Amino acid sequence: MQKILIIGYLGRDPELKYSPQGAVVAQFSIASTERWKDKNGELQERTEWFGVKAFGRRAEIAGEYLHKGSRVYLEGRKRTESWDDKKTGAKNYRDLVYVDRLEFLDSRANGNGSSRAHPMNDEQSTVPEEEIPF
């Protein structure tokens, strides 16, 4: 079993795409920064970027409510996608987080000062890979 938990900020607006069958997929990036003091007591920080994909209703919600700079909490699982480079024929790989649960942490996400959660089970949010044209 694997589970990835991330709290961070969107690095760009979600990009929505549709499969030929009409399934919606949202893709965006999240930056998460960890801070600590080193042995000399100086504050250090490191920002890690995560590529993220959401499917189905969760993708629609992300596309409607999230924007660059939105703060979110998400739970998901790591997936490695691969494709062949059209020019060189080389195999390329990238790791993504496929979203299982998404919560908005900005008070402006729903306008009433509280976060908004959108948990859904896997059957509602997963699109078969053969339906994803990209």
Could you characterize what this model shows?
With 134 residues, the chain is mostly beta strands. It has two helices and seven strands, in the order E-E-E-E-H-E-E-E-H. It has helices at 56-65, 122-125, and strands at residues 4-10, 15-18, 24-37, 43-55, 71-84, 91-104, 116-117.
- Note the run of SSEs as H and E: EEEEHEEEH
Helix content: 10-25%
Number of helices: 2
Q: C-alpha Rg, in Å?
A: 17 Å
The class by helix and strand makeup works out as mainly beta
Percent of sequence in beta strands: over 45%
Give the mean pLDDT.
Answer: 85
Oligomer: single chain
Spatial shape: globular
> Which regions have little confidence, pLDDT < 50, spanning 5+ residues?
109-134
Strand order of the largest sheet: 1-3-4-6-5
Q: How would a crystallographer describe the biggest sheet?
A: 5 strands, mixed, barrel
Straight-line N-to-C gap: 26 Å
Give the tally of β-strands. Answer: 7
List the helices and strands and how they pair.
Blueprint: E1 4-10, E2 15-18, E3 24-37, E4 43-55, H1 56-65, E5 71-84, E6 91-104, E7 116-117, H2 122-125
Parallel strand pairs: 4-6
Antiparallel strand pairs: 1-3, 1-5, 2-3, 3-4, 5-6, 6-7
